[in-house]
């Protein structure tokens, strides 16, 4: 089992699909990495040599923000918005939708399970 950026990559999958198991690498980035290193898209991770896995690991470390660094960067961006007390920061703090969605109905993902209000019946 290959280990890249602190993630165990599944060996029986194609390289492009396996790289998407790393947080911060999607399909497009995985294809870009494979093209840059000259790795065929149809090859499986188990067919890669140790040297090829090492080249993939070095390329990702050098050129892409992935896993812990990316999560930390995202958390710092949200914290900065909250510290500035911007509208988006306040929405994050209150656990409400940040990007302008309606909250009268829906928005249950951000707001959590519906809480019944006592004395609302007529």
Automatic annotation (TrEMBL):
Gene3D superfamilies on file: 1.10.8.50, 30s ribosomal protein s13, domain 2 (4.10.910.10)
GO CC aspect terms: cytosol; small ribosomal subunit
A GO molecular-function annotation: structural constituent of ribosome
InterPro entries reported in the protein's UniProt record: Rbsml_uS13_C, Ribosomal_uS13, Ribosomal_uS13-like_H2TH, Ribosomal_uS13_bac-type, Ribosomal_uS13_CS
BP GO terms, sorted: translation
Keywords tagged on the record: Ribonucleoprotein, Ribosomal protein, RNA-binding, rRNA-binding, tRNA-binding
Keyword RNA-binding in record: yes
Function: Located at the top of the head of the 30S subunit, it contacts several helices of the 16S rRNA. In the 70S ribosome it contacts the 23S rRNA (bridge B1a) and protein L5 of the 50S subunit (bridge B1b), connecting the 2 subunits; these bridges are implicated in subunit movement. Contacts the tRNAs in the A and P-sites.
Protein family according to the UniProt entry: Belongs to the universal ribosomal protein uS13 family.
Complexes and interactors: Part of the 30S ribosomal subunit. Forms a loose heterodimer with protein S19. Forms two bridges to the 50S subunit in the 70S ribosome.
HAMAP family per UniProt: Ribosomal_uS13 (MF_01315)
Protein name as it appears in the record: Small ribosomal subunit protein uS13
